[in-house]
Amino acid sequence: MSWWVIVNPSAGRPEEVTGRVAAAIDAHGVDAEIHESSAPEHVAEIIADGHQAGIRQFAGVGGDGTAHLVLNALMRLDWETPPGLAILPAGSGSDFIRTFALPRSIEGAMQHLATDEWYTADVLRVEGEFGTVYSLNAVEAGVGAAAVDTAMRMPRWVGEKRYAVAFWLTLPRFGWGMVDVRVDDRKQIAGKAIEIVVANGQFFGGGMNIAPRASVADGIADVQVFSGPRRKAFSVMPKVVRGMHLRHKNVRRLTGKSVHIEVPDGWPIEADGEVLGTGSISVTVQPAAIEFKI
User: Fold this and answer.
1) Are residues 111 and 178 in the same domain?
2) Spatial CA neighbour of 93 closest among 15, 17, 19, 152
3) Which of 89, 116, 143 finishes a domain?
4) Are 77 and 131 found together in one domain?
5) Which sign does the torsion angle of CA 15, 16, 21, 22 carry?
6) What is the pLDDT of residues 117-156, one digit of tens each?
7) Which residues share a beta bridge with 44?
8) Longest dimension (CA), the chain
9) Cα(70)–Cα(51) distance, rounded to whole angstroms?
10) Which of 132, 144, 174, 206 is the most buried if burial means most Cβ atoms within 10 Å?
11) Are both 224 and 188 inside the same structural domain?
12) 186 contacts: CB under 8 Å, gap ≥ 6
């Protein structure tokens, strides 16, 4: 079956991306049609057109932001069977594919589009004052989301390290808050915290192994609440990079199918590297929502 490949021309080097995609398609003999998006809302229009034309396999060319746009467009349409999604990395960050150890280049990832290997994956449904948004990888509330906002304003040459740089720039000026995290309406973490993560995939922030025990195919979200004084970040964050933080006394972890998070009104929320808004949210796992190309 044919692929529709959606190119974010602002990902990587704009003047090269589409040409690289076309060359990779030819090199690997992939049955694919290229569509360049001109704006975020254009991605949804392209996918809606593909859906009407009977296409059910879509590949996003770019970073996690492009994958986020493609996923949300897919999830807002009616499908008889879960649609197929692939990621051809060309942006400054592509963390979701790290869970599967997929190639981190357009050329390397393109060869997977010619195979029959798929992974049935869950999706996170996020609801808040901003409306309903779908997340493939991870949702954050607190200092991490504020760091994403900072990272988005940093120059492209910083690359994958921009989240880590942004985190340390953001931490000194971000205030602690009282939070209430309820998982499956029966498990609770309440108290003072600075960061909450709801993970589907294992990596975020340019390769940090935030959820080493997470699975994208178990119908369960991995929830972590970070507390303690700011100075503890210097001991926690190096462990997060390696996925060895779960036993730290300032990290509490729960798992479940649904999560309700009450946070201070001004706390930012982000999903897959996209800042959504502020305030409290509910996150629900939608099991087996897509077929992910591996």
Assistant:
1) no
2) 152
3) 116
4) no
5) positive
6) 999 999 999 999 999 999 999 999 999 999 999 987 777 7
7) none
8) 56
9) 12
10) 144
11) yes
12) none
Residues paired with residue 4 on neighbouring β-strands, in sequence order: 33, 58
Range 260-264, long-range pairs (CB < 8 A, 24+ positions): 260/181, 260/182, 260/185, 261/141, 261/179, 261/180, 261/181, 261/182, 261/196, 261/198, 262/179, 262/180, 262/181, 263/141, 263/142, 263/177, 263/179, 263/196, 264/177, 264/178, 264/179
Which residues constitute the domain of residue 30? 3-116
- 223, two tokens: 């929830």
Close Cβ partners of 111 (under 8 Å, ≥ 6 residues apart): 28, 103
Q: How many CB atoms are located within 10 Å of the residue 276 CB?
A: 22
For residue 174, the domain's CATH number is 2.60.200.40
206-247 pLDDT, tens digit each: 889 999 999 999 999 999 999 988 888 888 988 998 999 999
132 and 112 belong to one structural domain: no
Torsion over CA: 254, 259, 261, 267 (sign): positive
CATH number of the domain to which 55 belongs:
3.40.50.10330
Structural domain count of the chain: 2
User: What is the amino acid identity at position 215?
Assistant: S
Token match 């760091």: residue? 147
pTM above 0.90, yes or no: yes
